């Protein structure tokens, strides 16, 4: 008999790890299946239902046999609506360069594929990807998969979890190919103001080594705005460099459609042509029914989502009020998205990092949180308020009681 086959993965996967949030969710489900009472505050997805019009569009699509391949970059009706939405968010870009059109849009399997496509399209071996931390945990691994080298630009709670223009200036080298921006941020809820984005754009415009630098602006939480700071698209703040910005967005968070896998990129015709070609040779166009649903969801007015946003806001306030009772938790009030990022260094036991801390809190207090290490901050944990108010309050109270030694 021949020796058992030993599979060795491609070297491309060296250093790439399983998504920590997905792994934790699996652990929580396992504990729940064993009958444990666990409050799950790990969710990276809204707990609301998909809009009814989106469901109706799928039913109609089924009746109409919408079962064929679609164009790789998406159906024209959807790409047009995405362009229209982007034009509304980027009037300064429109004034300077003209309107975004369907031809500037590629519809992708979630925002995730839009980011991956963008990295695949521009990175060569050894190219640097500038990733401000804390970051959405998939960015560095995606960069590695595409041959790039993530270079972390660290921000702190004291600076509002935002990098400064000076930090960006220092981080750019001749090897810098991509900058990833994410506002509102997962995991911190930080939001850059228009002026702050403009200052970062100015650094890129003027830096002698930024000649090859592109920006991916991940705006997937654009609708979930919790404070007075209005959302501003990066290209809108820096219209003079719009031709090197790939704006990424989608319906996962803004229309609670995570499982339907609808995202997109909006970029210059040259970039979009490459992104579309890449998608045509890999996954092709996304699910036809999800596209029909997205057309309907994008036709809804902003006001249709106001109630959801105000619920997130209320939950944030409820959670923070309780969390402040644990005096050594360090937290910034999130301005967008649905997460609070808690500095828990003051509660770490000897030898503990936030990953072991999360295991302890899960085991002893029955609350599931995501450790901060995979987001670039090992002394912090992420708490999601995409869950009903009662469970959220109960989870926060359990955490505080545990930390206060009750
Ligand atoms: C910052 C950020 N970008 C992108 C994504 C990917 O979204 P999608 O589910 O549409 O692929 C997520 C999802 O958690 C996210 O938090």
Describe this entry's structure for a reader.
The chain has 406 residues and is α/β, with parallel strands linked by helices. It folds into two domains: 11-49 and 305-403, Aspartate Aminotransferase, domain 1 (Alpha-Beta Complex); 52-301, Type I PLP-dependent aspartate aminotransferase-like (Major domain) (Aspartate Aminotransferase, domain 2, 3-Layer(aba) Sandwich), CATH 3.40.640. 39% of the residues lie in helices and 14% in strands. It has 14 helices and 13 strands. The chain has helices at residues 20-33, 52-63, 76-89, 91-97, 110-122, 138-145, 165-171, 194-206, 234-237, 269-280, 288-298, 306-323, 354-365, 389-403; strands spanning 39-40, 105-108, 128-133, 149-154, 176-182, 214-218, 245-250, 263-266, 330-331, 339-343, 367-368, 370-371, 380-384. The protein has a seven-stranded mixed sheet, sandwiched between helices. α5 (110-122) packs across α6 (138-145) and α7 packs parallel to α8 (194-206). The longest helix is centred in the last third of the chain and has 18 residues, at 306-323. The chain is globular. Bound molecules: pyridoxal-5'-phosphate (PLP). Pyridoxal-5'-phosphate is lined by residues 44, 110-112, 136, 182, 186, 218, 220, 250, 252, 258, 263.
